[in-house]
Amino acid sequence: MRISGAVLAASLAGWPPPDDWQRLRERLSGPLFRPGDPGYPEAKQGFFTMYDDRVPVAVVGAARVEDVQAAIGFAARHRLPVAARSGGHSYPGYSTVDGGIVVDLSRFSGIDVRPDGRAAIGAGARLGPIAATLAAHGRVLPAGSCETVGIAGLTLGGGVGLVDRKHGLTCDHLEAARIVTADGRVRTVSRAAEPDLFWALRGGGGGNFGIVTGFTFRTVPSADVATFKLTFPPGTQAALLAAWQEWLPGTPDELWSGVNIDAGTAITNGTFLGREARLKELLDDLVRRVGTPPAEREARVTDHLAAMRSFDDHEGRPGAVAARAAYVGTSRMLLRPVTDPAAVVEVLTRAPRVGTLIDSAGGAIARVGARETAFPHRSALASFQFLHGATPEDGGEAEARRALGAVRDGLGPEFGATGYVNYLDPEMPDWARAYYGVNLARLRAVARKYDPDGLFAFPQGLSGPRPIVHKGGS
Asked: Which stretches make up the FAD-binding PCMH-type domain (predicted)?
């Protein structure tokens, strides 16, 4: 959230009063970072460097649930905006809030795998440590592939990943969540306890209903997984897209695949939970449909953790920890096969710095009704994510968003007014319906119930806007 310089100056000039900050500091078991404090410049950083100019009035390094309650209560009393930060990968930087309080959940990083296969995971845990811990117990939580992404934002937006056609979205494995709501109450929600809020937390987006501090997930047994990658020659992007969209619906749930397209790239890759011979048959069928043999073809059998790391390749170093970055993204959902793949590829490749990542859907995802959880895009064929660098060399953030907007809005009716909430785009037209579809009205009702005064409001949030009132400063 961006606020006026005058309001921010008032906050930093003495509102809330120093004594109030000191009382908050004394209540916390974790640290409180204020502008000018040692460690504040690092504490306020999210993943994206474009938002380093934002100046929260405080960062609460929450170490226990009571710290989250104290931060929410302080924000409510002083009418300050408040935002939770887990992995910090919010594309618009909503977890770094100007003139407000950031509740840093990184200390909620515990991962407890129980004998029955359930896992209690703190909201600050990241996907890499989660996958590694579960692998040591022979378990898997269907989730994304980027090791530094936080479990909270991923789950609350739905959670797509490498085995979701077989096992469903991350949110489909959520059994309970602990959340602190705007009234300061700690609630443990499930199908049996406050089911409306539990429903909303499964796809209703991060930051809308309170601050989640922990999750309980059902996990699945780990199994060998084959990874594959087919690199086709330049100029075959349209042929690959046409073949892939026809091939995908006939593939078994055990196969997940993606397509990477840009001006010079035509790649499909993925995972398969089955026999190598069967995977070969499936890939041979795809190649026949493309009509051009791949320039490179790779396939190998590994475990889930290694497969995940192979898709998390930073600067050619699979599994390496990503440095902070500068890029922006947007999305559309493919609702049905495109009628003119060449026209779609022309839109995708007209801006040379835009890259497109297509993730297959269907399978177990589609066997859950659109209204059963808050995630609405159950019948989509695939999700499309569009990325563009936002460094000065790329032309900066404004140029990146202009280029992405042209791609996002230049696609055909097969995509509709859709988008994936975990790829938030501050310029998405009709964003609320794009992200929440048939579930929008119910989600807004849940947000009003648990956050009636809009404490957790942000530019693309479901709570109504809340005026920020400062009683001091100038």
From this structure: 52-222
Mean residue pLDDT of the chain comes to 92
Q: Where are the beta strands (DSSP E) in 40-129?
A: 58-61, 82-85, 101-104, 111-113, 118-122
- How much is the pLDDT for 464? 64
Residue spans of the chain under pLDDT 70: 1-14, 313-322, 464-474
Q: Answer with the one of 178, 198, 222 that is the final residue of a domain.
A: 222
Asked whether the beta carbons of 124 and 106 are under 8 A apart, the reply is yes
Cβ 348 vs Cβ 407: under 8 Å? yes
For the segment 385-433, what is each residue's pLDDT rounded down to a tens digit? 999 999 999 999 999 999 999 999 999 999 999 999 999 999 999 999 9
> Which domain range does residue 96 map to?
5-106
Determine how β-strand 111-113 pairs with β-strand 118-122: antiparallel
Decide: 103 and 212 in contact? Cβ < 8 Å: no
Q: Are strands 355-360 and 255-262 parallel, antiparallel or unpaired?
A: antiparallel
Show the beta-strand stretches assigned E in 352-410.
355-360, 382-389
263 contact partners, CB below 8 Å, separation of at least 6:
349, 352
| Same domain assignment for residues 218 and 237 | no
Cis ω before 16 (30° cut-off from 0)? yes
